[in-house]
Amino acid sequence: MEEFAELLLPVTDVRHQVVERVVQHLAQRNKDVPEVSNVSWSVHVVQSPTVNAFVLPNGEVFMFTGMLENVTDVHQLTIILGHEMAHALLGHSAEQASLSHILDLLSLLLLSAIWALCPRDSLALLGQWVQSKLSQLMFSRPYSRRLEAEADQVGLQLAAKACADVRAGPVFWQQMEIRDRLSGELSLPEWLSTHPSHRNRVAQLDRLIPQV
After folding, report:
1. DSSP character for 10?
2. For 153-171, what is the mean pLDDT?
3. Per annotation, catalytic residue among 3, 84, 95, 185
């Protein structure tokens, strides 16, 4: 709230009102889920070109206007918000924190061994850098991608119960892929990213549509 204090849209802004209505609609249609009904959902819309949205574990929803500008309709917005709310319902922040603690402990043990075997500072620092990068590539980023895929699935279920057209999900990520290509933005290979690639996301959501 401190970081975005000067960028928050007033509650009278139509963009805030749209996000607020969709969040409350999702909460109402999924009130039979205790993890949804036990949370007091509140909305903050940030004036920023950043294409992002996130939800804190306590139900604070943050939507950036850059994301809103890339959303075609209310169905896509419902699916995006359902995805972000799913992260909160599934306790993904706590899961990532737990993984971080485990990796920190393993890193400490490994670094102790590196320093013991390579007492020279330069070699030890190089070993520490290599260990950090390997930890990200082998554990942190794959785990983050798995959580994203899980939130895609649960978010789509939340959106379906809110009567959104779930076919809008894969369409949105196809649009994002086209947008990145037209803008010339360099897209990282999936194995270097914390999120699934747009193409893999489209394929997963397509597979989920009959089920949801």
Report:
1. P
2. 97
3. 84
Please say if 95 is a catalytic residue: no
Residues in the chain: 212
| Backbone phi, psi, residue 44, to 5° | -135, 125
> What would you report as the CA-atom Rg of the chain, rounded to the nearest whole angstrom?
20
163: left (phi over 0), alpha (psi -120 to 50) or beta: left
Distance CA 120, CA 57 (A): 44
Please give the mean pLDDT across all residues of the chain. Answer: 85
In this prediction the pTM is 0.80
Q: How far apart are CA 84 and CA 47, in angstroms?
A: 18
Nearest to 199 by CA among 168, 175, 164, 166: 175
What the block records as the tokens of 160 is 């379906």
* CB-based contact 35:94 (threshold 8 Å): no
CA dihedral 36, 151, 161, 66 (to 10 degrees): 90
Tens-digit pLDDT profile for residues 116-125 = 776 666 666 6
The kind and range of the H/E element at 166 are none
Q: State how far the Cα of 42 lies from the Cα of 81, in Å rounded to an integer.
A: 12
Strands (E), 4-99: 42-46, 53-55, 60-64
Asked whether residue 112 carries a pLDDT value surpassing 80, the answer given is no
How do the domains of the chain map onto residue ranges?
2-92+142-209
Position 191, amino acid: W
For residue 46 the two structure tokens come to 């940030």
